[in-house]
Structures are given as structure tokens and as C-alpha cells.
Amino acid sequence: MLPSTALAAVNSAEQDPLDSFMWPVYRERFLGDAPVVFDERVIVSAPSFAEDSGQVPIELDASGLEASGEPITDIIAWVDLNPIPRLFHYSPMSHGLAKLSLNIRLEQASAVRVAVKQGGTWHVGGTYIEAEGGGCTTPGIAGADNDWENTFGELQGRLFAHESEQRLRVRLSHPMDSGLIPSLPAFYVQSFELLDQQGQQVAALDIEASVSANPTLGFHMRPSPEGYVIGARDNNGNRFSMGLQP
After folding, report:
1. Which chain regions cross the lipid bilayer (predicted)?
2. For the whole model, what pTM was predicted?
3. N or C end of the chain, less CB within 10 A?
4. What single-letter DSSP state applies at residue 149?
């Protein structure tokens, strides 16, 4: 049987709690024909107002779903009113946990959604962020900082070990140009992958140019005694990597 929160969500599966006219569009585009429920266990935390629309921190915590023991296979996030709506597609695979943080861009005030797939059903949570806007169509660091090339590609990170998980904090110096600004072609990081020390991929994250410049990510992972190797690739074929140990 489903928990009471999920049962309530099933009964209102098509009644968007954020009342966005874009919900039917992206429900079909990103989630397809699979069953969908709005679930309070998918928690999306963000500021109620974005003071800097180019750097808006959001955090996902769907660990309440993991308590059932059924694997989570996919996590998708998007912004209803961004010109590039999708934020990321996360595959936790063998080691990733359903907790993730990153900074995003907002073109205007909008609903922000996260959908977590478990057992063939999408569990959806979200929040609404007020914003002055322009985060997707104003020049990034490449246009504002003539020195950005000196730090381009620097990958910094740290691993924080806890009893039940390891938290990885990662920052990659990259302009993340969306291609929406005249004379600035799209130039952004497309993917991150996490490997164990034997080179086996254990989690993967695909992102879009709607993620902020200098992507800063927080992964929550199952403990790996020897730590992890993190790799990244952008749309120009540049590759970046580093190892993190406890």
C-alpha cells in the first residue's frame, strides 16, 4: 500500500499544486505516459525570491522515497518558464542517493519541478521562485570577466564523509554560455560522471545551459572506501576530471 501522502497525491495527480499552465506540456515532454503523482516526499528547497537570477541555489531531497527500498532510476528537473526548461537528468545508478544541489538560472518567476522515477511511477515535487528575471539571457562571466580563460576548466572538490553517506562538493570553472545571447555561441558543460576507483561508472548527471556559470554541485553518495573520480565534458569536447578521497 502507498503511504498516505502518496495516496493523496494519486487522487490529485492532474491537479497541479503550483497551478502552472505549462505543467501539461512538460508532463508529456519529460515524463511521457508513465503514471505521475505529486508527492510531498520529493522536497525542492530554494529561496522564495531570487536576488541574483543567474545564480539561484536549489536542493533536492527525495530520501523519503528511498525508505521503501525500491530503487530510484531517474531524476529529472526543469523550470516551467525558462527558454531552456530542462535543468538536469540524474541517473543515481549503483551509488547515488536521491539528494542533489546546484545553482540554476531563472529567466523570470517560475515553478521549478523535480520528478523522481521509482518503480515505473514519477513522483513530482516542486516550488515557486519569484525573480526579477533575465538570468538566461544576460551575458555570463565570459562577457564580464576578461580573465576567465585563465581559470577555465579548473575542477575543485571536496569529499565529506559521514556514517551513512559521503557528500561530494564540486565546482567547475566554465562560462556555461546558453547560446541565447547574440554573438555568443552555446558553450556549456553537458555531463558529469562519477566513477569508483576501479573506473566503474556509479552515477551520471546530464545538465543543460540553464545551470549557472561555474557549475557548483552537491552529490550525496553511498560510502566508497577509496572515494570517487569525477569527470565532466562540455559541448566542445573538452574533458575535465579529478579524484576525491575521504
Report:
1. none
2. 0.91
3. N
4. G
Asked whether the beta carbons of 98 and 65 are under 8 A apart, the reply is yes
Please tell me the distance from the alpha carbon of residue 1 to that of residue 214, in angstroms, as a whole number. Answer: 43
Beta strand residue intervals within the chain, DSSP E: 36-38, 43-45, 49-50, 56-61, 72-79, 86-91, 96-104, 110-118, 121-131, 155-161, 166-172, 189-195, 201-207, 216-221, 228-234, 239-244
For the chain, the 3-state helix, strand and coil shares in percent, each to the nearest 5, are 10, 45, 45
Q: The domain that contains 199 carries what CATH number?
A: 2.60.40.2470
> At residue 5, what are phi and psi to the nearest 5 degrees?
-65, -40
Domains identified in the chain, total number: 1
- Which residue range(s) make up the domain with 41? 4-244
Cα-based distances in Å from 112 to 18, 43, 152: 9, 11, 29
- Looking at residue 7, its pLDDT comes to 40
Is residue 101 exposed (0-12), middle (13-18) or buried (19+ Cβ within 10 Å)?
middle
How far from 75 is each of 9, 43, 57, CA to CA, in Å? 18, 13, 17
